Amino acid sequence: MSKSIEVNDLNVYYGSFLAVEGVSLKIEPRTVTAFIGPSGCGKSTFLRTLNRMHEVIPGAHVEGEVLIDGNNLYGQGVDPVLVRRQVGMVFQRPNPFPTMSIGENVLAGVKLNNKRISKSDADALIEKSLRGANLWNEVKDRLNAPGSGLSGGQQQRLCIARAIAVAPDVILMDEPCSALDPISTLAIEDLIEELKEQYTVVIVTHNMQQASRVSDKTAFFNIAGTGKPGKLIEYDDTTTIFSNPSVQDTEDYVSGRFG
Amino acid sequence: MTTITTPPTRPAAPIANTLTTGILPKPVPWIILGGSWVLVGILYGILAGAGVTSGFDIVGTVFFGTMLFVIINYVASRVYEGPRPATNRFVTSLVALAFIIALLPLISLLYTTIANGLPRFDLSFFSESMRNVVGEGGGALHAIVGTLEITGMAALISVPIGILTAIYLVEYGRGHLARAITFLVDVMTGIPSIVAGLFAFAFFALILNQPGIRFGFGGSVALSVLMIPVVVRSTEEMLKLVPNELREASYALGVPKWLTIVKVVLPTSIAGITTGVVLSISRVIGETAPLLIIAGFTQSMNYNLFSERMMTLPVFVYTQYANQGIPAEAYLERAWTGALTLVLIVMVLNLVARIIAKIFSPKLGR
Amino acid sequence: MTTAPATQAGPNRLKAKQRPGDRIFSTSTVVAGSLILAILAAVTIFLIAQSIPAFTAEPDDLKGADNFWVYVGPLVFGTIWAAFLALLIAVPLSIGIALFISHYAPRRLAQGLGYVVDLLAAVPSVVFGLWGITVLAPFVQPFWSTLVDLFGWIPLFQGPVSGTGRTILTVAIVLAVMILPIITALSREIFLQTPKLHEEAALALGATRWEMIRTAVLPFGRPGIVSASMLGLGRALGETMAVAMVLSPQVLISFALLTSTNPTTIAANIALNFPEAHGVGVNVLIATGLILFVITFAVNFIARAIVNRRKAFSGAN
Lengths: 259, 366, 317
Hints:
The structure holds 3 protein chains of 3 kinds. Chain B is mainly alpha-helical. Helix content of chain B is about 70%, strand content about 0%.
C-alpha cells in the first residue's frame, strides 16, 4: 500500500512567476513527514505538486520530477486523474459534499467515477474507511444523514475517510487542523499516528508543536522576501530539526525568534 | 413606517432623561399625519358643501393630506429639533412615500385584473377556442395551448444552450472566446423583445423563402433569443457560488473534470439553476410583441408548432382588446380574463421558483 | 484545468491522455457558447439583409414620407422622448424605494418588500397596456386637464388637453412603472454593498440617517445608479405593447405632453403595422427595428461600460 516519494530539483511556477525553487527530498514509505515554514513560503504549493492538484490553478506548471516508487508523476502521458487516485489529499477546511449523506461521502471516490459496487461491498467499504478514520462509532447510526451536519472535527475525519476509501498509497494533508478546535485537533493527530501504519503521510502545518508531535521527519521551507521563490532550507529527522538544526534560519524559526 | 428615526425613549421615566430633550415624542408624526388628513378632509367637505367641487374626493384628501403632513412635520421638527433632524425627517417621509407610490400601481393593477377577469374565468374559457365565435362566449384554449407549446419549445432550446454556456464560462472559459461570449450575453440581455421577433421573422422568411411567414416555432426561436441570456446569467451566478473546495475535493479523489462538474458542481447548484430557469420562463411567457410578429394570431386551434399561425395568451389579450367586435363587453371581458390567467401563471411560476430555492438548496453554510 | 494541463509550458510540455468524456463534455460547452456568437451574428445579418430594400423604398410604402429617414425620424424621436420621460419619473422613485428597502424598512421586512417590487417586474407588458388604457388613462385625465388649465402657457403642457388621457405622459407613467423594478433591484444591491465601516463611521460622528446616506451610501452607489438607470432606459426604449395600446398612432415630432396628438415609438409602430404590412412595407418595419436595436445596443453598452469600470475600482471582486 505505502510508497516512497522522491523529488528531484523541482521548480513550481504560476505562469511565469517562480513560486518554489529547486526542491529535492526523499520521503520513506510508512512515515509522517511535516512541512513547516512561514506563510507564503510555498509549502502548500509544493504539497499540491505531489498529486498534481496545483494544475487546478490556471497557468501553474512545474519543472523537475516527482517519483512515486520510481514512477515519474510528470512523465510523458501521465494522467493526473490516475495520479490523484494513488495520492489522496485532505484540505485545510473540511469539505464534505453537501448534496451527499455521510455514507455517500465516504463512497464518493467510487461513485463519482461511475464504478459499480455491490451493496455489501459498499457497506463494508464504508465501515472500513470510517473505522480507519476513527469516526465509525460516532456516525454508524446516521450514515444517511447529511455530512454537513457533523462537527468540524468529525467533518475533517469524514474527509479523511473519503480519502482512504479510494485506497491511495500516499495521503497529503494541507493544514488539516487549522480550522479545528484543540480536541478535534488531538483526534486528528491520533489518527495520523495510526494512518502511518499503512500509508505514507505528508502534512503541512503551521503548528510546530503539532509537527514535533506527529512527524518522523520535518522539512523547513522559507522565503527570502516577497516575490522571491520559496526554498527548502532543511530536511531532517524531526528531533534533529527541533533540537539541533544545522541552519540558523531553521533554529530561529522553530525557537520562535523568527522575523 | 414614515418616521421611526427617533431613538428609543423611556416615556415613563420618573426623571426627565436629558438625552430625550429637544426630540419630538414618537407618536407626534403620526398625530400630524392623521390631523393633516382630517384637516384636508374637512376642507374638501366645505368645498363640496359650497358647491365648488362635485362631491367628496377621497383620493385628493389622502394626496393633499399627505403633502400637508410632509410640510408640517418638517416645520415642526425644524422649530423644535433643529434643521438637521428636520431634513432627516423630510427625507424619511419622501423615501417612505416613494415606496407607497410604487405599491399603488401594483395594487390597482392586481385589483382591476381580478375584478374584470373573474366574470369570464369559467369552464368555457378554458375549454373552447374562438373559432366561429362572434360576440359572447368562446374561450382561450387555443391561446393557452399555443403559449404552452411555444414557451415549452423555447425552454427546450434555451435551457441546454444556456446551462452549457454558463458551464463553459465558469469551468472552462479563458481568453478571448470567454470574454466575447460574456460581452455578447450582455448585449443579448438588452435586445428589445420586438427586435427578437423581427429577427425570427427575417430569418425564417429568408431561409424558407416565404415572405409572409407565420408559425409557432418561429415564436419559440424569438423567445429563446430573449431567454438564453437570462438562463446563462442566473446559472453562471449559481455555479460561481459552488465553493472551489468541493471541486478540489473531487479532483483529489481522482475524479475527472467532467464527472466533477456533472456529479458535484451541478447537483450542488441544481436548486439555484432550476429557480433561474423557472424565472426565465416566467419572464418570456408574457411576451407579446415578438409573438404578434412571428406567430401571428388566429381564432382556431393549432397544435402544430411548425405550420400555420398560432395563438398565444398575451396576443389573445391584445387582439381581444384591439379588435373589439359587438358587443364590446364580451371582447373586453375575454381580454381581462386572459390577462388574469397570464398574471396567475406568472405569479405561480415565481412562487414555484422561490419555493425551489428555499427547500432544495443544499446547506453550504458551516 | 485539471485533467488537461493545457497551460503547461516549458521544455517538458506534457501531453496527458485525453479522456473521451472530458473531451465530449468540454466540446459541447464550447459549442453552446459559440452558438450564442452565431445567434447574435445571425440577428445582425438577417436584420440588415431584410432592411436593405427599405432604404430605397418609395413614398407609397412609407406612408407618404419622402424617404426612409424622413419616415423613421419622428419614430426615433418618439422612442427616445417617451423613454426619457419614463426615466425622469422612475429614477427618483427607484432610488427612494431602494433606500427604503435597504436602509429604512425593518430588516425582517426588507426581503419581503423586495419581492413585492419584483412582482411588478413579473407582470406581462400586455397587462400593463390593458391597465394603462382602462384604469390609468381615465384616472389621470382630470389631472392633465387641470395641468393644462394652470400651466398651459408652458409649451410642454400646451392644450388642447386630450379627452381620453391617452397621452405621452400617461405612457411615460406606465413605462416608469415597468422599469421601476429593474432600477430598484440594481440600486438596492449597490446600496446594500456600501461598506458597513463607512456607514458606521458617519453614524459615529453623530450624523442623522439621511446625512449618513448622503455621505456614505449615495457616493458609493452613484455609478451603480447611473448604470441601473441606463439599463432601465434600454428596457423602456424597447417596450412595445404598453405604448402600442395606450397611444393612438401618430407620426410627428412634438414635445407637448398632454394633447391627443402624440409621437409614437418604433416598437409600437412595428407592432401596430406589422400584421397588415406586405411587400416593402415589411422591410421598412424591419429596418426601423434595426435602428431600435442599434439605439438600445448603444445605451446598454454605455451602461455595461460604467458597471465594469466601477468593478475595476471597487476591488469588491
